[in-house]
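ARCHIVE CARD
CATEGORY: sequence design from structure
SOURCE FIELD: tokenized fold
FIELD CONTENT:
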């Protein structure tokens, strides 16, 4: 980006733009070099204006939720990282007729779950302990305990790369599959309507704490990670295959394959993105050699 583009972006983005922003702070793995710019969108109108400009100037961008399923490379990113804040990170509307909630896509899942508990609305408790946003969960079709968010989504409000609003609902065909929601490249999810069911506050609260306890027992939460690194292959578990290949505890630089859960790579303090990428490659090679299975990453890699 040149100086003219930076000045125009500051004006269009109402000053919610920072340049040369270190991304390690914005991902749960705590690695990654700087983004050329970080834009915190506080309203759909402002986001649309910025997207129109980015498109007209051919400036690349990526959308980030809480960065809990992302690895950003050590050299960082060209262009802009977009995050959703302000009115795009709140519950907007509770509708009693069909028991649905319209939420900003930047809303943290734990805040959403607390809201659901207080409002005696059940159905999303399986998302407990997933440290993402509503938008990131929809983009990834996040799931746990045999459930996925895609089955709870009624409407998705997006803005496309030209700044045009787009709405999808069941009538217009959702394309959710395992850890994926198919959407047009460059689309930003801004709002999501979710289906819920009435339940007592106590029942919702109990389910949330039960699920959190199970997660605490089975997942290594003492070091930064991005959760499961690989998708589970059909009828098997990536963690089991990694364990079978003898890779638990394998270290490269500051990154290690967890002893507790083979599908987690942890940043033990000084990891670089390079260390994590090398461990990913090693796990893919060894598991292929030992079992013939090709592991496909669940985490998404951004950067130069
Ligand atoms: C400790 C731990 C436990 C986890 N447990 C689980 C689990 O049980 N189940 C599970 O499914 N995942 C799990 N995850 C992974 C991760 O939390 C989920 O995938 C989560 O949904 C990602 O949300 P996010 O907001 O952090 O998205 P990010 O990681 O920031 O982004 C993920 C992808 O979504 C896109 N995206 C994000 N927001 C938007 C938006 N508004 N519009 C368009 N695209 C967007 C990004 O561009 C990127 O491609 C875990 C992660 C950790 C660290």
């Amino acid at each position: 980006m040149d100086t003219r583009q930076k000045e125009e972006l500051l004006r269009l983005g109402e000053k919610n733009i920072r340049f040369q922003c270190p991304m390690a702070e914005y991902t749960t793995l705590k690695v990654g070099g700087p983004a050329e710019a970080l834009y915190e969108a506080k309203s759909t109108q402002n986001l649309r204006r910025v997207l129109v400009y980015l498109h007209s100037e051919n400036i690349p961008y990526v959308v980030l939720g809480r960065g809990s399923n992302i690895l950003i490379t050590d050299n960082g990113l060209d262009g802009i990282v977009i995050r959703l804040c302000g009115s795009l990170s709140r519950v907007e509307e509770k509708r009693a007729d069909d028991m649905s909630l319209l939420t900003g896509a930047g809303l943290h899942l734990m805040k959403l779950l607390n809201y659901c508990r207080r409002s005696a609305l059940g159905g999303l408790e399986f998302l407990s302990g997933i440290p993402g946003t509503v938008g990131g969960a929809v983009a990834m079709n996040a799931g746990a305990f045999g459930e996925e968010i895609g089955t709870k989504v009624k409407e998705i409000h997006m803005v496309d790369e030209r700044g045009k609003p787009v709405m999808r609902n069941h009538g217009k065909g959702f394309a959710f599959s395992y850890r994926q929601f198919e959407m047009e490249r460059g689309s930003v999810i801004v709002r999501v309507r979710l289906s819920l069911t009435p339940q007592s506050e106590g029942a919702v609260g109990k389910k949330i704490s039960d699920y959190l306890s199970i997660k605490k027992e089975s997942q290594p939460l003492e070091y930064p990670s991005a959760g499961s690194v690989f998708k589970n292959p059909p009828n098997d578990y990536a963690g089991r295959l990694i364990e079978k290949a003898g890779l638990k505890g394998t270290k490269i630089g500051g990154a290690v394959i967890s002893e507790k859960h083979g599908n987690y790579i942890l940043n033990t303090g000084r990891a670089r993105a390079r260390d994590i990428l090398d461990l990913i490659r090693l796990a893919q090679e060894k598991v292929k050699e030992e079992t013939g299975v090709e592991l496909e990453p669940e985490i998404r890699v951004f950067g130069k």
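CARD ANNOTATION: The chain has a mean pLDDT of 96. The radius of gyration is 20 Å.
SHELF: design records, drawer C
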